[in-house]
Predict the 3D structure of the following.
Amino acid sequence: MTRTRRRRTATGARWRLVTGLVAALALTGCTAATAPAAPTGPPPTPQARQLADAVTLDGAVAQLEALQRIADDSGGTRASGTPGYERSVDHVAGELRAAGFDVSTPTYEVDDDTTLRNVVAQTRTGDPGAVVVTGAHLDSVEDGPGINDDGTGVAALLETATRLGGSPEIDNAVRFAFWGSEEDNLQGSTGYVDGLSGAERDAILLYLNADMLGSPNGGYFVQGGAGDGRSETGPPGSATVARTLTEELSATGVTAETIPFVGDDDAPFVEAGIPTGGALTGDADRKTPEQARAWGGQAGEVFDRCYHSACDDLSNVNRTLLERYTTAIAGTVGRFATGAAERPSSG
Ligand SMILES: [Zn+2]
């Protein structure tokens, strides 16, 4: 704890220095070509930088190892309705309670008249009328342990949540959501959004979805603002969420590509008119030669050869991608948590 605090202080000092440099460059850069107008997200605050610097790959991998152990003890799967899913719920809720969050496990109904649990954790600080929501699905398919899909999203969010803590100094509240039944028509996230009152929906500033962050031959993808029609682009403000995540990925040294939404757990939030972004590294599509040149990896090969298979285990995770996305998600959550108490503008 002491070590973390000391590091955070040093990070704060470094950020102030960087801010000064940027300001100096801006003053001397008036003759540079003007970039096209783009929606701007909240600025990188010291708190956001501290959070991005605090998260670690080791912390995220420890969560992946826990999910793998749960699958190993549960017949090789964490699919909704199986013991592996129930153990995943208990593990995630326990981690978040230990980190000081206000944790609940709201239920949703599935087709056969039974109820299952999502996990939802919110900071005790920040304006509860202005909430930054980020989510990942906690279930796997029946055929495998689901460590890349979507253990990596779960791990990145748990690492961000535990480093943030339940009572950080923030302006807007932060809610971490772990959905069941994504692999069964998004029943967990859909049931949750359907169950919110109008006021509860209005209180959500934005939603950021994380689904598959360590595809072995993966790419750096962001969703929000790209495509045709609202189901692909998300509602107004979504491009701002995407741009903020893109900037945070850029700070880790990579240029992300923005692609349309395809109807993951982002869909119910998009339908509810909430500005939405997505973080993903690709599933069964093939990497193009251009993408391989930009990011490395094998052109012509699928992003995740173990997608929805038994081999989606601990060995099926590209740790470089997972580390960058964990850092970028922490930075993005931190920026919106310390930004204005209003939905991101459409620029
Ligand atoms: Zn998934």
Q: What stands out?
A: The first strand starts at residue 102 and ends at 104. Residues 94 and 267 are 28 Å apart (CA to CA). The chain has one domain: 41-337.
